[in-house]
Specification:
The complex is a heterodimer.
Chain A lengths: L8 E4 L5 E6 L11 E6 L6 E4 L13 E6 L2 E6 L8 E8 L5 E3 L3 E5 L1
Parallel strand pairs in A: 1-9
Antiparallel strand pairs in A: 2-6, 3-4, 3-7, 5-6, 7-8, 7-9
Chain B lengths: L2 E5 L3 E2 L5 E8 L8 E8 L6 E6 L5 E3 L7 E6 L4 E6 L8 E9 L12 E4 L3 E5 L1
Parallel strand pairs in B: 2-11
Antiparallel strand pairs in B: 1-3, 3-8, 4-5, 4-9, 5-6, 7-8, 9-10, 9-11
Classes of the chains: A mainly beta, B mainly beta.
Chain lengths: 110, 126
């Protein structure tokens, strides 16, 4: 069970968009729709942003959206705001009733 | 408002067993709609799923930790617990408990997602 691969960093100016990828295999991301995304500010608890690939919990701005194609899931953040600067983690069901997280992507708002 | 709170020692000696408890308030572990999960995060590193337990006591563990992990539940106290044996410096991390939705076809359950987290407790092995 290997961690899902995310780019270490991504950045964008306020108002711009940024997209983060989360690459796995057909045994995890590609095989199931249990992909979720978490936002973690420094020293804080992770917060659920997207679940079941593209669903948003209540209270999460619609600037955040999720998608999946093959073995890669993506989180898009449009209209970047200063408070979006954080580390983002993906997670996926990995079969055999286990779960795996991504390596994390630090998003910087320039 | 659902809240989870971890408790346990912040310092464990090498080779000893870590014991942590997560107390759930605002929801009943017995409800059957959720799994109750442990996740850890070494300082400056990513998240690692440790394992989970259902209200009926069914457990699932990370294969890399399976030989050392035991998760149990006490529905009478609305708590679940983690034991991790043979601790080493590599187990130093913040340990989180979290609620994970089951896929039961309910619109208000976020299937597969860790939707409520505890504040985390720092555990140092030294």
């Amino acid at each position: 069970q290997s961690a899902l691969t995310q780019p270490p960093s991504a950045s964008g100016s306020p108002g711009q968009s940024v997209t983060i990828s989360c690459t796995g295999t057909s045994s995890d991301v590609g095989g199931y729709n249990y992909v979720s995304w978490y936002q973690q500010h420094p020293g804080k608890v992770p917060k659920l942003m997207i679940y079941e690939v593209s669903k948003r919990p209540s209270g999460v701005p619609d600037r955040f959206s999720g998608s999946k194609s093959g073995n890669t899931a993506s989180l898009a953040v449009s209209g970047l705001q200063a408070e979006d600067e954080a580390v983002y983690y993906c997670s996926s069901y990995a079969g055999s009733k286990t779960y795996v997280f991504g390596t994390g992507t630090k998003v910087t708002v320039l | 408002q659902v809240q989870l709170q971890e408790s346990g020692p912040g310092l464990v000696k090498p080779s000893q067993t870590l014991s942590l408890t997560c107390t759930v308030s605002g929801d009943s572990i017995s409800s059957g709609s959720y799994y109750w999960t442990w996740i850890r995060q070494p300082a400056g590193e990513g998240l690692e799923w440790i394992g989970r337990i259902s209200n009926s006591g069914n457990t699932n563990y990370n294969p890399s930790l399976k030989s050392r992990v035991t998760i149990s539940v006490d529905t009478s106290k609305n708590q679940f617990s983690l034991k991790l044996s043979s601790m080493t410096a590599a187990d130093t991390a913040v340990y989180y408990c979290a609620r994970q939705g089951k896929d039961i076809g309910a619109a208000d359950i976020r299937a597969g997602a860790f939707d409520i987290w505890g504040q985390g407790t720092m555990v140092t092995v030294s």
